[in-house]
């Protein structure tokens, strides 16, 4: 078959090592998929694939062993999944609209995990519906707390849940459980003074360890949801690095606006000569300077009074060098 590989990739199919054979990629925004869709995945894998499914690093499914002439049949079977997950696409029965922007990944969040400070899947779906599909190579990950189980700091945008602990002194019995948890597991932001707990608002990272540790519910999570936004983490050969904090104690709307603004920034500054027409955001920021990026990212963003913006962000990371003496 005469295959347009660029078109193939945009239809969420992979170019494989075997001629005429492809693999279908299935997005699962926020890593959450109702089990009723497993039947469709199973049918595709057994009828048109090689009977196996690979769970991808970005919480999607990849069905290998599909003949390229069967792509249209596979796309028709994928449509109920696309409809059920409300995934944006250009044309019905044409499969997933795949582009540079990767599946929005998340930990399981506060629907299940006692450490999580918010519903990660719900927020992931909001971001997915706002930015997908898009050709630019963006990676976004959400984690419910500072434990960062999803490895959010290895993404262009890492979103970590925060809470502002609410302290009820009348319920406190001065057992010290919260102070010990904060000291041994977190930032050491709690002190005991006159048998009552004092929280250092500057040191507090909003993790919620005190809430979990308190046997009397003297500490509870705040009703308001807050987030830490770390930016421009990446893997890869050239200069892998962890994302650094851009905002803390911020809100959902500000984060979504910043991500949308970043698409405009990339469109303006991307290197047209970049391999495959793609250039990771972090390298563009490295080239233009952080101040230029910040100007675009914060355009039209209105922060809540509690939000803190880092005026300058610096990254380190790994720089590959020849061994000494060579």
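Q: What amino acid sequence fits the structure above?
A:
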């Amino acid at each position: 078959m005469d295959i347009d590989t660029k078109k193939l990739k945009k239809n969420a199919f992979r170019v494989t090592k075997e001629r005429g054979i492809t693999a279908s990629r299935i997005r699962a925004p926020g890593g959450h998929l109702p089990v009723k869709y497993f039947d469709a995945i199973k049918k595709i894998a057994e009828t048109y694939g090689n009977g196996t499914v690979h769970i991808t690093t970005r919480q999607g499914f990849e069905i290998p062993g599909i003949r390229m002439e069967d792509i249209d049949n596979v796309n028709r079977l994928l449509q109920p999944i696309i409809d059920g997950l409300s995934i944006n696409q250009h044309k019905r029965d044409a499969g997933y609209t795949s582009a540079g922007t990767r599946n929005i990944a998340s930990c399981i969040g506060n629907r299940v995990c006692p450490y999580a400070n918010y519903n990660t899947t719900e927020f992931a779906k909001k971001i997915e519906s706002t930015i997908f599909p898009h050709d630019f190579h963006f990676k976004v990950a959400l984690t419910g707390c500072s434990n960062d189980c999803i490895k959010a700091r290895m993404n262009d945008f890492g979103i970590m849940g925060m809470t502002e602990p609410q302290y009820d002194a009348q319920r406190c019995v001065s057992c010290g459980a919260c102070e010990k948890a904060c000291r041994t597991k977190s930032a050491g932001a709690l002190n005991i003074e006159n048998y009552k707990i004092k929280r250092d608002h500057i040191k507090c990272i909003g993790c919620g360890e005190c809430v979990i540790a308190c046997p009397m519910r003297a500490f509870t999570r705040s009703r308001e949801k807050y987030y830490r936004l770390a930016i421009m983490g990446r893997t890869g050969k050239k200069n892998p690095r962890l994302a650094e904090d851009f905002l803390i104690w911020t809100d959902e709307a500000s984060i979504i606006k910043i991500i949308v603004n970043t698409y405009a920034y990339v469109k303006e500054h991307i290197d047209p000569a970049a391999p495959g027409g793609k250039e990771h955001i972090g390298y563009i920021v490295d080239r233009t300077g952080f101040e230029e990026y910040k100007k675009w990212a914060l355009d039209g963003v209105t922060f809540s009074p509690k939000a803190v913006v880092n005026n300058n962000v610096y990254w380190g990371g790994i720089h590959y060098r020849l061994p000494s003496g060579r």
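Q: And what stands out in the fold?
A: The two ends are 48 Å apart (CA to CA).
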